[in-house]
Every structure is written in C-alpha cells, then in structure tokens.
Amino acid sequence: MKEFFFEHAEIIENKSISREIFSMKIRMGDLKNARAGQFVMVYLEKGEMLLPRPISICDIDSNTLEIVYQVVGKGTKVMSEMLPGQCLKILGPLGNGFKIETGQRVALVGGGIGVPPLFLLAKTLVANGMKVNAYLGFRTAPILAERFQTVAENVFIATEDGSVGHRGFITEILQSSNEKYDEIFACGPLPLLRALAEFSQATEIPCQVCMEERMACGLGTCVGCVVRVGESYVRICTEGPVFSANEVNWNE
Predict the structure, then answer these.
(1) Which residues pair with 210 in a beta bridge?
(2) What count of Cα atoms within 13 Å lies in the side-chain half-sphere of residue 144?
(3) What is the pLDDT of residue 240?
(4) What is the pLDDT of residues 55-76, one digit of tens each?
(5) Measured distance CA(100)–CA(130) in Å, rounded
(6) DSSP class per residue in 80-95
C-alpha cells in the first residue's frame, strides 16, 4: 500500500516568482518516500472552494515541500494571499512518479507551469549519476531557469514572444540539437507532450510524460481524470500522472 500524508501543514514561505506564479514552501511530515513526478492535493476548506487543488511537487528538502502554482481562479488566488505560519490541509504525495535509471544522458522538456516538477527530477537524476540537459519553454518570462542551471549541464530557453532565449517553441531547439539522448522526460501542456511523443517515435528515444489534468479527489475515486493508454482508459491521478509517451492515445 502506498504511503501518503494527510495533514495540516504549516506554510513557511509563500512568494511571487513571476507574474501570477507563486512558490510556496510547506513544513510537512516525513517526505522520504516522495518522488519526482508526484503531486499533492491542497484543501482550502473555504465555503464554495471545497474541492482540493492538485499541484505537482517542485522540490523537497528534509520535511519541507515546495510547490509552484499559477493563480488562475478563486482557490489559487486565496493561496497566493496566505502568509507564513498559516496552515493548509495537504493530501500526498500521490500518483506514480518518473521511473529513473542510472548512467544515462537525458533531456528534460518542460512547458509553462509544467516546468516546476522537472526541477526535483533534475536533482534526482544528477544524484543518480545522469547527465541532464533542460529545455524550458514559456509564453513569456521564464521561471526557475536559474535553479535548473545549478543542476543541469545546459539549460535552453524558448519564449513564444521572444523576450528571452529562442523565439518560438522549445521543441524546435530539441529537434535541431545534435545531442544524443538515452531518454526524454517531459511535463507541460498537451500540445507539447503530443509533439514530444511524435519526436520520440521518429527518433526511437524513449519518452516519459507527466500529464496535467483537472482532478477532484486525487485518489481515483471520482474517475474524472482519465486518459486512454493502450486499449484501456486509466486514471491520471493513480495510474499516472507519468506515462510512457508511446502508450498514450494522443488522438482522444
């Protein structure tokens, strides 16, 4: 049986790191079993905001969990206004994380708010002796790029408006690269993951994708976050959120 924590956790830090993007650090219990690619459910327990918010784990340090989230509605707006010392009800870590081997040269490809969960992955990969290049794509201002530079050999940036790095999509940099990779790890919006699945198939480079989806429970009970993998529909929150790109049916 998987271990997870369900507790009222204290906020240590909650700060803006870019427009409408916040980093929150939370003091929790023992996090030794948490893995890159997993997520937590954040409960606000305020009036109409009863449903929790699923947010990927960005980093872990001892008993401190960091999540990076975007303000997109009432719930995340309330989160952005919370102060150190206040508590949140947290369920997690949940889901299946990335499968990690050793001694490989890999590419991490993230888009937008899909970039944060790749930071813990980058740290974990490097700790396992792997060589990592990070490809980070954004509409405009990048986030966490400086932190990726502390662990990755190279960090490539693309912005759709051309404000930083390559003007265009991050996949364009990856596709034009002469680097040879043993595997690709990715997280981001569906068009990015679909493009990487096609790239993976064309190049025969294995690719793991961490999928984003609305979730109501995070435990598989509501069956509201399904994706077709192979011949079956599976729940992203429990069977995922990480899947092999070539197993996902990208046309449904």
Answers:
(1) 187, 242
(2) 29
(3) 83
(4) 999 999 988 999 999 999 889 9
(5) 10
(6) HT--TT-EEEEEEEES
